[in-house]
Amino acid sequence: xTLTPESRILVTGGAGFxxxxxVWELNRRGCENIIVxxxxxxxxxxxxxxxxxxxxxxxxxxxxxxxRTSPDxxxxxxxxxxxxxxxxTTEKDADYLMRNNYELTKILCQWALSxxxxxxxxxxxxxxxxxxxxxxxxxxxxxxxxxxNMYGYSKHLFDLHAKRTGMLNQVAGMKYFxxxxxxxxHKADMRSVVHKAYGQILNTGKVQLFKSHRPDYKDGxxxxxxxxxxxxxxxxxHLAENTGANxxxxxxxxxxxxxxxxxxxxxxxxGKEPNIEFVEMPEHLKSKYQYYTCADIAKLRxxxxxxxxxxxxxxxxxxxQGYLIGDKRLGxxx
Length: 334
Hints:
By secondary structure, this protein is of the alpha/beta class. It has 10 helices and 13 strands.
């Protein structure tokens, strides 16, 4: 399946970080017959929608009501890109996470399959926990995974449900690793270190990073798989169009970099010398902190994804110089 200007597409979480980036890329491909659904609440993610082109907006609560009571009123979609979720790894309201991240995904997925609609949804690398069981998107036994927070567990629970019911053989679930890039500024504490560090550098001339509390990692040498949002959305749309690519997919760069390397790239993009200060990690994070993540993207590649990815330095430079400087969003480039 190829997405065309005639394709009717639903993007949940469409005002959010990755969701709005997907709408931006769909616009670049000539697609505007898009229904955006989200809960705008009190933050300013609505600003992500301003440069974008789409057919209509539906409140997330109204979307859920329609699906539960009058699903045919929504009409037919060729693809549902389900990015809508509470993405705060520090959220403690378990009931809210279960309703928003688990229950809604269940009914939306069931509705999509019953209407012959391609369903692609956001899982998360947070489902892997500390990585003790590996970070393999082809593992046979998902039950061995131990997420470190309720957000990760809410995502993991739907993965388990989809596999148990056989739905995972008909849909694609994306385990996003550490995605960063334009349109994330509304995410408050959940913004990437790139966005936070940029502000710190402007205000103080330096960047603060957490000290390590494990002897096998030096301060700032904790490692993450950092994925630029422009790569993340290309991968996502590849899975949306490739209806034979089903199951769970790691979406990452396939390389792990240290926080120090990331911060050095930010200083370089600003033409400044690195100035890093190491600070104590808050107590409540110590038991839930991931020291190493790296996505094995062999399954994604074997599905036919051949695009080259941004290097860390290229991505950070594009983000800092193209968007953070000037406070631009995706769609403001022209």
